[in-house]
Write a sequence for this structure.
């Protein structure tokens, strides 16, 4: 099941973080990335879960986690223009966050820099 979720997240189109008002108020898994100016690729930075993805994405601008500080810096520097987000609706989001993080890191062959605790399971 974790593989299916990871594949769906990887295949999903990125949305500008500044367009987060388009994200529905649903439970699910989300990924935050950053577009580097010199490259077309977007680097995956963080995977999270929430019972309300829309609200959680907004709250990252004001929180105290490492990803929150990165988002704040990006907003100060350029209004958040380099930040990207994508999500999928998933009912069992809370119980498998650690599995999703591990799966994404394996599939991307890249550590999610701002997932410090490895999830909540």
């Amino acid at each position: 099941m974790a593989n299916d979720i990871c594949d769906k997240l990887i295949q999903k189109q990125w949305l500008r973080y500044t367009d987060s008002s388009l994200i529905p108020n649903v439970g699910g898994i989300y990924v935050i990335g950053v577009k580097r100016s010199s490259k077309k690729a977007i680097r995956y930075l963080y995977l999270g879960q929430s019972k309300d993805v829309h609200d959680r994405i907004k709250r990252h601008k004001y929180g105290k986690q490492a990803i929150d500080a990165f988002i704040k810096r990006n907003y100060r520097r350029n209004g958040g223009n380099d930040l990207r987000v994508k999500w999928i609706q998933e009912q069992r989001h809370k119980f498998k966050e650690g599995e999703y993080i591990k799966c994404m890191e394996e599939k991307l062959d890249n550590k999610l820099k701002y997932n410090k605790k490895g999830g909540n399971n």
